[in-house]
Amino acid sequence: MTEGAGRRARGGGGSVRRAERTAVSFDVAKYISRNIPNFEILNEEALQIIEHNAETVLEEIGVNFIDNPAALERWRAAGADVKGERVHIPRGLARKLCATAPSSFTQHARNSSRNVEVGGRNLVLAPVYGPPFVRDRTGGRRYATMADFENFVKLGYMSKWLHHSGGTVCEPTDIPVNKRHLDMLRAHMVLSDKPYMGSVTEPDRAADSVEMSKLLFGADFVDQNVVMTSLININSPLTFDSTMMGALEVYAAAGQAAIISPFIVGGAMAPVTVAGTLTQVLAEVLAGVAYSQLVRAGAPVIFGAFVTSIDMNSGAPTFGTPEAAHITYGAGQLARRLKLPYRSGGAFCGSKLPDAQAAYESANSLNMALLAGVNFMLHACGWLEGGLVSSYEKFVMDADQLGTLHHLAQGVMMDTNGQAMDAIHEVGPGGHYLGCEHTQANFKTAFWRSDLFDYKPFETWYEEGARDTETLANNRVAKMLGDYQAPALDEGIREAIDDYVARKKAAVPDAFI
Length: 513
Description:
The protein is α/β, with parallel strands linked by helices and 513 residues long. It has helices at residues 14-22, 44-61, 69-78, 93-98, 146-158, 180-191, 203-217, 219-224, 242-253, 274-295, 322-337, 356-372, 392-409, 416-419, 421-427, 437-442, 458-463, 469-483, 491-506, and strands at 32-33, 63-65, 81-83, 86-88, 104-107, 116-119, 122-125, 133-136, 140-143, 196-197, 228-234, 239-240, 257-265, 301-304, 306-310, 317-318, 342-343, 376-377, 383-384, 389-391. The strands form five sheets. Strands 10, 11, 13, 14, 15, 16 and 17 form a seven-stranded mixed sheet that branches. Strands 3-4-2-12 form a four-stranded mixed sheet. Strand 3 and strand 4 (86-88) form a beta hairpin.
């Protein structure tokens, strides 16, 4: 199995080619390239105030690096003032260190046509991440299993508007905590050919992710290219724990991408004001990105901002709110000034069901992220109940609506066809455009159309069972999973991955905490 260690692994052999010829075909859209401007809510004075205040936080208040003596030594050597586990970063030092991080990078997929460009004017869409529960129309709300995890990977693979397979699309609670990352990563590698995320729940699990990726792509290729993105959450406010930082150290050292992301619930983990929250977000990101560059200068990173507000009566997080939009827009401006790719947004909602509340909140959040200039959007589909639940029906409902983001991002076409002067001349006063040459030439692509929603007349809709959107989505899930065929993969590579998973799982006893 070492023959491919020095090159990128590719599907090969007659069996792979035969599988490709008989596979179910479906369209997959390229990542979004925006032709519309970003919405910028902060003026230059406001941006400078926030940047000044963030530097003050780093210098005067400092950040904690918990249970990580090596991190403290790195900071001390870089010129920071370390007192116990508190790191005070002199004004300008973190920003200087951040300058070595790339402004964009390519994340490679095992199918090179699925590669994504993270940064610039691009937007990459990835599914929900992290819920311990799943829900579907027939089974209700329940703890997630590995079978559920594999189903969501399959749905993501077959979803036209999703560009990325994601990471912990749900938490498979039927597999021991210390072993489930192996099965999860294998599912992304084998059941999909889109880019994927690595494990971050322990540094050694991050190391497993790197080693398994070497089996899939080849060791030299992984050393020289980005094949994984990982989510490194900051323990807001202003605390970097050893688990997340340990995973970051593994990925940075391996040249793999990390999203440095404060986890902000306004009023609980950050101030209740927009400017105050943006100050804390920027301070935390500066410290996290700078630390990644201390591990390996040039390591790819993404400026992350997971931000929501809080219901001051119940304490529950709220989504799709104006305050969250203000913060998301402002954080995008701050990320661009640092010349870093930006992660935020998603199909966020607090609803317990894929209902009108879920739709309103998710639509607000998705459009906000598009206009904010987000480059990597986690949670783009499937999120329910404040992130506690991965919903089958909402997954396909959200994935369908991601098509609107693609079309909005195209902007207004102003070429000769877009101006449509020939059509206006042809039809003239009092006519109609249904049969004109321009309409006939453009009707297939003129308007975005949902593949899920019901546009039939009332009588037809009623005769077909008066199905609501959740019912249609439930039917769509069943059809997609019924049609699913795994993408072709060299059998030797699959065997090597399976062998690695089996050996690692056999080497340690089960642990469920």
